[in-house]
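Q: What does the assembly look like in three dimensions?
Context provided by user:
Components: four
Sequences:
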Amino acid sequence: MTWKGWLSRAAVAGGLALGTLTTTVASAQETIKVGILHSLSGTMAISETTLKDVMLMLIDEQNKKGGVLGKKLEAVVVDPASNWPLFAEKARELIAKDKVAAVFGCWTSVSRKSVLPVFKELNNILFYPVQYEGEESERNVFYTGAAPNQQAIPAVDYLMSEDGGSTKRWVLEGTDYVYPRTTNKILEAYLKSKGVKDEDIMINYTPFGFSDWQTEVSKIKAFGSAGKKTAVVSTVNGDANVPFYKELGNQGIKATDIPVMAFSVGEEELAGIDTKPLVGNLAAWNYFESIKTPENEAFIKKWQEFKKNPKAVTNDPMEASYIGFNMWVKAVEKAGTTAPDKVIDALPGIEQANLTGGTAKMLPNHHITKPVFIGEIEANGQFDVVWKTKDLIPGEAWSKQLEGSKDLEADWVKLKCGNYNTKTGKCGGA
Amino acid sequence: MSAAIALPPSDPVHEKRLTQALLYVDDIKVTFDGYRALRGLSLTLMPGEMRAIIGPNGAGKTTMMDCITGKTRPDTGQVIYDGVHDLTRMDEAAIAELGIGRKFQKPTVFENQSVADNILLALKGPRAATASLFGWRNRVGRAQIDAILETVGLIAHRARPAADLSHGQKQWLEIGMLLAQDPKLLLVDEPVAGMTDAETEATATLLRRIAQDHAVIVVEHDMHFVRALQCRVTCLHEGAVLAEGSIDSVSADPRVVEVYLGR
Amino acid sequence: MRRCLVLLLVAWYAVWALPAAAQTGSDAAYARLASDSYADIEAGIAALATSGDPKAGPVLRALIDNRLFYRPDDKALAVKDGAALTDLRTGAAVSPDGFKPVRVNNRLRRAIDASLGTLNLLAPDTATRRSAADAVFKARDAAALPALDTALARESDVGVKRSMQEARAAALLAKPGGASEIDRLAAVDTIQARGDSEALAILRGLANDPAQSVRDAAARGVSGIETRQALMANVQNAWYGISLGSVLLLAAIGLAITFGVMGIINMAHGEMVMLGAYTTYLVQELIRQKAPGLFDWSLPIAIPLAFLTAGAVGILIERTVIRHLYGRPLETLLATWGISLILQQAVRSVFGPTNREVGAPSYMSGAFDLFGLSITWGRLWIVVFALAVFVALNLTLKATSFGLKTRAVTQNRRMAAAMGIRTPWIDAFTFGLGSGIAGVAGVALSQIDNVSPNLGQGYIIDSFLVVVFGGVGNLWGTLVAALTLGVANKFLEPYAGAVLGKILLLVFIILFIQKRPRGLFALKGRAVEA
Amino acid sequence: MLLSRIDKPGWIFLGILALACLVVPALNLLTAPGSAFHVPTYAVSLMGKYLAYAILALSLDLVWGYCGILSLGHGAFFALGGYAMGMYLMRQIGPRGVYGNPILPDFMVFLNYKSLPWYWHGFDLFPFAAVMVLLVPGILAFVFGWLAFRSRVTGVYLSIITQAMTFALMLAFFRNDMGLGGNNGLTDFKDILGFNVQAQGTRVVLFVLTALALGLAYLVARFMTTSAFGKVLIAIRDAESRTRFLGYRTAHFKVLAFTVSAMMAGVAGALYVPQVGIINPSEFAPANSIEAVIWVAVGGRGTLVGAALGAVLVNYAKTLLTGAMPDAWLFALGALFVVVTLFLPKGILGTLAERLGARRPKVSTDIPPALAEEGRGS
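A: Here is the predicted structure of the complete assembly.
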């Protein structure tokens, strides 16, 4: 291709050229487009690909029910390839070119941060289905995953309880990025407020995809041998977990000695590990595949049929996607349009039954109410729920434990503000 | 031409010089992974002298050149140039700047550049990066280059990439580059390898002409060529000097005959 | 597993032979067990363990294996063997409807381990007795003292006796005012002699013991053990370093052939490792379905297969792409990079992007204690394996005619060809060899790392650094480099932390290359120059 | 005198850039969003991104194509320039962060930073940041090059340690303790020199600036490579030791070229960041640097214009494929690299030039002998 050739294509409207940029085949009757922004290649594909499939399944199902507002839904799938700038670029493409009504996507915080400005600028809706560090509430984003107070805090409460082994000594082990950093800051503050002393808390960070855990694990072993009941709270990120657990197993650390409470290890991750040595280790989620409810069983059945794989597992972010999608559908029907502004206003207050019983409610701070479960790993790679919160816990955008955010409050209904400062009484930031 | 290669101005340090010799190689030893390439080689060369070095393969001819041009550091011994400079302590560039030019055994010219550019790169003059970026070398007149190409008979090919030249032509181009460098001492390694007799003859004449106002060391196998040079001859063997003198005396020397025919 | 089931059944019928009267004592315990409150169940466990009911052992084991069921309405308890449910009290088979499993969590597992320990102290099998003693030691329950004493009286095996004494000492020290000062002092010595981190924990716990002498003894014990452990820490680091080094060696050694010897900047090297890992996965899947008994053989079987798979792919790549690029190393970089992308995506679309489970055979799981230095079997095997591969490769290159030809070709292609060596095939097989070795490495790495499409990416850079640091084209260099980097890394890690340690190492390598521009074992002489 | 040194493709290239500077803004600002000729704003930024990459490719071609220095770490210079710009943009947010802290960026607030780290000072001033964009990569490249080239590290060894360099930097920047945002990097920028970065006008201007920068970078590179300096560079690439015997201190030439090239890369990064809206450590990832090398190879090594062409084409293809075939685009991309190396060893432009029989100093695709030596590890 010559220079002129290329330029005429690129310049005479990147629009024209880029017009060929999507999977969608222009369909005859009018459809409502929905963007799916999950990495299908690169390091995050491990976690995100399933979410793409769930979305496709849900959309497919909705269409069987006759779509939304009498129109069929049409999924627009793109691959941001675990590359954060590419996330922003693809988001832009989805909104500006494909004119999607809403986008479901992102897993890592950095990908969300990277697309945020795009959604604000082009005023569209992002449903974010993964548990995260909080400290955020944006008008255009709806957080259907857990905030720290819906996962970390209850988990620690459980470990402190008698059932949880009345833990006295804490290892906060995490991958060195923002989610573990913030979560651990929150937990540290919380533990101290519960009277835990500094020398009984060990905080430790390892790089992404860390694979040689010998030293770290032996450190934990040593720390755990101080005569007090010790537990590990792990915010280790997906990829590094397998070698971490393998090393724990090898060095003979059993859950009965030092239990590990993980926030990023679900059924999906366990599928990659031989769980027999891990029996008894814990995870805190708002959903477990093993929870027996009619909705859940139906969902699992549909999923396994959709994947044509009877062994396919479900996990928490999948339920979060499910809740988010259905809330969006309800909001659209309530608003009678897919216009973002209307839908954004319609969403707070929308309710959707959880797969695990109870109903999730979209709160004015764009987070939702969730039940919290603690599960123990079983030999079959599933979780046995050993504890659950009495009632649903509302998600807090701003953590009460952190200096910077304890005065902040998010309310998009009354205050129309994501970071209203109760002290100064004004809406901070822009 | 004569302008291009005028005699160097006599340097001020003439008084303090350790030796009158232009090049004074004293008892240098070199070892590669246990193999002793040079075992105490000594040699002196007077200003303006031409010297032919002969010797069987592995005698250490090229290694000696390497030691003089700074490519190889001798383990022991010293190489004094112009009475004051200890070459064993300098790198290639510095030695070249002193006015020692070298022509390699296997002709190495800059294949991807035109014949003229090859000469341009070699031309005597400031060699600093900045100078070549803005300075003098960007404004060299065509005449200066052509004069040299004339001498080595490559004027017709000035624009062609050096890669297109024949083997012999590359040899000549390299000699041309030596002239452009206008060194006080030329080290010429097997200049006529793979040349026709006619070319060899011409090369010999050229070298004799150069020798009129340059010191030259020629390493060569070809006895006829060496004879044609009409100069003093040093025969190396196993990294040391075996014999030295006129071509007749050396070629008459029984030991030389032995090492040549003995193999 | 199966054997223990059989044992269990035997125990079971033995139990039923007993008169029903003996059981009444434990009815209360059963009542507590038939509950969904962990607190009740725990109480039930304690009661059962002390009830002297001969069924206690089997019941507790059933409980920990999730084979104990209860019927909420009438608190009936039943144990599941295979499919059948048998009522605990009546011994009659019952229908499963209405029964719910009695659930256990960590807290209960701990309790059960302790009780079972006490109950098994007299078991006929030495191993059982030892593990029982250890369980009691962990439990540190004064209630176990009588049982321990009787057991000690009968115990013949020296090792078991010692661990029982330790357990006894631990139990003694458990309740502050419990035993006499003399006994406690003796106990402290026993514990100190044990000298591991558990012992340390117990002694630390004595900081506020009523008796001054005990406090001092404990304090001495603590400092004694600590100094010893501080010493061990260095040995431990060295070992960790070696095992990390062996992993690096495995990852890099294939590259030492394709890159080091052949001069191909093989960016697809990591993917060869990945292929090896996936081969292991497939082998294990097959074994799981067809012949579970062979599971321990999965790795020995996988090794040759991985070698062949990766090797074949390697040869394919060489024949189709790389052979057109000899003498143009940089082009090989670009092409192989493309190939690595393709291979990754291929695996991703075949096996899916998620991790695959590769289990550890029995001989590779667990750890053993060597003079207080805990060595995990998995790591040990990998070290051995890495060295074995290294030796084998060296022999292939040095002692076989193939190796001779390889070296000939890589040193002087034209000359070798002139001597009638089929250079194209030598090239192909050499590349195949390098790739195959990478595949074999994949088998080992599947034991310690994710088996995912990204597996290879994690090792490619380290591998290149190792080869370059060791000196291109020199296998011994690769060996030394890998071990040096591994050990250095592990000694840095405790002080600098994992990330900073690695950064420091990289900087060191960069600076080192300035000093030795051709790596640790560079070749001197004219050949290198020019 | 410089103009006389620009060859035909050069003129075409500059012409197209000039055209782009006029046409693209016009089509974006003047045409109605509906019309077939309208260039949507996101497409403008997209092209701006391509051009930023083109500058990176150009800078890489200067050292690789002309001096045989295969840097697998040029992404590091790119990223450093980007971070310098990112830090400026962060400071511009001022009190508009979610916590409303006038000094500290948000990520510092929730990580309990009490005060601004020293190296953040001054970045609130654009001139300072602009200087840093050039200086930081420049100094790193100078020190690195001075060490490496003086001790005659060449070929594969050099490539690998450049890779080690960028890898080390990546790990360092991932650490949250670096005070540069860790994995999240720097994002959510508000405005640049008082203009809103999101605004259509700003985006168009940024595009034009990038195009101009590319043109300028080309002129600089062209000037260097056509001067005697360039002839020496090529001489070094083809026969370094021979060049030394001619009396050239080759290390000086390499360091100079390397440093200039690194500064270009830094500028590219600085222009890239405001257009994509984020800079984070993954820009240091060795894979990125390798891809940059591939752009150059695809376009044509040692042709400058070709490098830029390659960067734009490959990235355009990437945009196209990640959308069009999200599950299989890596196959296509991988195949592209293989095919190009096998069938277009001189890259697109190189091959094109041969077809047209254009007169340009022929550029060999063989690697410098020195490299061949080590590659073979003899």
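Follow-up: The CA atoms of residues 296 and 362 of chain C lie 6 Å apart.
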